[in-house]
Amino acid sequence: MKRVEGGISAVEGVVASGVKRGKYGVALIAASGTAAGVFTTNKIRAAPLDVTAENLNVAKGRLEGVIANSGCANAYTGPRGVEDARWMAGLLADHLEVEPEKIGVASTGVIGRYLDRDHMAEIFQEAKTSLRSDAEASIDAANAIMTTDTKVKEIAVEHGGVRVAGITKGAGMIEPNMATMLSFLYTDAKISPETLRECLLEAVDDSFNMLIVDGDTSTNDMVLITATGRVEADLDKFREALSFVCVELAKMMAKDGEGATKLVETQVTGARSRDDARQAAKTIMRSSLVKTAIFGDDPNWGRIVAAAGRSGADLDPEKISLSISAVGQDKELFLVERGKIVDGVLEEAEDVMRSEELVITLDLGLGEEAARAFGCDLSYDYVKINAEYTS
Length: 391
Prior knowledge:
By secondary structure, the protein is an alpha+beta fold. It has two domains: 2-255, L-amino peptidase D-ALA esterase/amidase, CATH 3.60.70.12; 263-387, ArgJ beta chain, C-terminal domain (Ubiquitin-like (UB roll)). It has eleven helices and 16 strands.
């Protein structure tokens, strides 16, 4: 997998721009091609998601562009919210001279507040004049949709002659089915809407759907992918590239979790079923007790075992093995082996726990299935950020 510079601008046929004014921003991306989307499972679903899903259906899986704003989620805003989302689509559609049904709309910010059209229009007017294909355009678009994020999140790769790239935002209110996160993916592959959606669902399931910051599923979560069709691509290579991009973006969100000081990957192996492995990994990564222990560099491994025990996964306490390791180091430190406590390792475990990137591996010893979840620790700053979010 070869990384390339330029973010989404590295994909032929993609132009982008973004403008941020304080808490409010507008990102624009223009790219013509087949498209697919995945949306939040929260039953309180923001208006832009309904409009985008409807547009994908009406346009039979094609998009010409995406418009996204930060600062207002346009969620729980009723009929007015739907009209505001359609108005947003109209802004970009008019500029690109395309049908509004071929525009994706996304929003992120505070729930239960109406969109300020005048302010939005002003920022849009500035953003539309700078649509371009250079590397800074991708960064500008990614920056425009940030809320509590502290870092721009983008990636582009080339694999088997095909390019896949993406930008994303998300730092809190994240646990998918889907992981507030927005992600806009682009590829130069030639691919049908049906196959593109199938590939997207598969990639999302092993990346964004295994990402946990705080256990809250947002009203606005959305992943969109557009394929510009410039390259005849090997489908397997495309799947591999898309999966890699989604996993890397998920890790970036976990590392930038609100108040986070550590990136954590939980690997569950030896499960009887894939569902068991996924459920155990997510329950461990969701546990506030595990997350606070990680923040405090405390090798309190009993919390990890307890979380697995309540996950609903099939397990046998006498067959469990548990280890921790620091990313970039070869050594795997075992705390439990086949149900037996390993003595004399807690001091060494404290050193491992000080790593900024930590891997927890739990082997259930029952089968061949495995899964991994991505997350972060839970710090004092998480409480502070979310206590003051609207003030």
